[in-house]
Design goal:
By secondary structure, the chain is an all-alpha fold. The protein has six helices and no strands. Helix 5 runs antiparallel to helix 6. It is globular and about 50 Å long.
Length: 121
C-alpha cells in the first residue's frame, strides 16, 4: 500500500515544523500564494531562535513539505534555501520579527539535552 504525499509529509516532518509550515502556507495564501517579508522574517527568526525544532531536517525535506502544503515552488525553494544556509553554518538575520517563536515556546520533540553551565561542575 503506497502512502499519499500528505502521509509522507507527516512522517518526514516533526509536528511543530509541520504546524509552522501550515501557518506560513495559510499566511502566504492571503497574499496571492506568495511569501511576503513578514513570513520570511518569521521563518528566519524561528530557525535562529529555535534550532532544536529544525534539527535533523534537510532542505529537501522542507521543500517537499512546503509543496505538499500547497506553497509555490518559488516559496518552497526560498524556505529550503534558508534551511540550507543554517545547515552550512550561516546565521539568518530577520529585520522585523527578531524574537519571533512559533507557538511561543521552543521545545524539542525529543528529550532535550541538559544545559551544563560552569556552576554545575
Amino acid at each position: 500500500m503506497s502512502k499519499t504525499r500528505e502521509q509522507q509529509l507527516k512522517t518526514e516532518l516533526p509536528g511543530s515544523v509541520e504546524r509552522f509550515l501550515e501557518f506560513v502556507a495559510m499566511q502566504s495564501a492571503v497574499y496571492g500564494n506568495s511569501l511576503n517579508y513578514r513570513e520570511e522574517d518569521r521563518i528566519k527568526a524561528d530557525m535562529m531562535n529555535c534550532p532544536s525544532r529544525w534539527r535533523g531536517l534537510t532542505a529537501d525535506q522542507i521543500r517537499n513539505g512546503c509543496l505538499v502544503l500547497g506553497m509555490t515552488e518559488e516559496d518552497a525553494s526560498q524556505i529550503a534555501y534558508y534551511r540550507q544556509r543554517v545547515i552550512d553554518g550561516h546565521k539568518l538575520r530577520p529585520k522585523y520579527y527578531k524574537d519571533f517563536l512559533f507557538e511561543q515556546k521552543c521545545v524539542s520533540e525529543e528529550s532535550p539535552e541538559p544545559i551544563i553551565t560552569s556552576r554545575d561542575r
